[in-house]
Design goal:
The complex is a heterodimer of chains A (about 110) and B (about 110). Chain A is mostly beta strands. Helix content of chain A is about 0%, strand content about 55%. In chain A, strands 2, 4, 5, 9, 10 and 11 form a 6-stranded mixed beta sheet that branches. The radius of gyration of chain A is 13 Å and the shape is globular. In chain A, about 35% of the residues are buried. With about 110 residues, chain B is mainly beta. In chain B, strands 2, 4, 5, 6, 9, 10 and 11 form a 7-stranded mixed beta sheet that branches. A 4-stranded antiparallel beta sheet of chain B has the order 1-3-8-7, with no helix packed on it. In chain B, β9 and β10 form a beta hairpin. The termini of chain B are far apart. Classes of the chains: A mainly beta (about 110), B mainly beta (about 110). At the A-B interface, β4, β5 and β10 of A face β4, β5, β9 and β10 of B.
Amino acid sequence: TQLLEQSPQFLSIQEGENLTVYCNSSSVFSSLQWYRQEPGEGPVLLVTVVTGGEVKKLKRLTFQFGDARKDSSLHITAAQPGDTGLYLCAGDKEGTSYGKLTFGQGTILTVHP
Amino acid sequence: DAGVTQSPTHLIKTRGQQVTLRCSPKSGHDTVSWYQQALGQGPQFIFQYYEEEERQRGNFPDRFSGHQFPNYSSELNVNALLLGDSALYLCASSFDYNEGQFFGPGTRLTVL
């Protein structure tokens, strides 16, 4: 069983559509991060959220951390082909030392022109 | 400002051999973590180094060992390689809790 469950695993949409990726757990996390990874490259950090209920916006991307710090979501508005990639959520489980990130299995997003 | 760098980019080894991977952290970062990413999966935490000591470790056997140098760079060593060790090995560095971890491009290890 994954500590962090991401859904959906695959997402194929048309340019201009909106989408939401979810990251859920039964455990509480001290912080949660979202990454985007291209094939053959390392994950690129998009955002870190640390406060329950926190919402952060990065251009067309909106990130939310659940009030109980057990879940998070990534919403993309008006998706573009350049958004295509693997999106990963990762977190520091509360009670463990900082930096031992637990990753979800990822969401593969494909945006068609 | 250079980000996290890793070497080599690709490596091919045979079963039973030993391998050393290298990582230089982002400037100003003092903590280095190593992850293993199998194809189609999220990264798995191997261990983390801070002040030249292993601070915490994931569920990996003792065949996986590491080192951190005074300049904060780090090495990952894997002994007695198995076919299942084939993966992308990622190094991440960090300094501030709220800043998050920054990943290098990875080393693609293939064990034949």
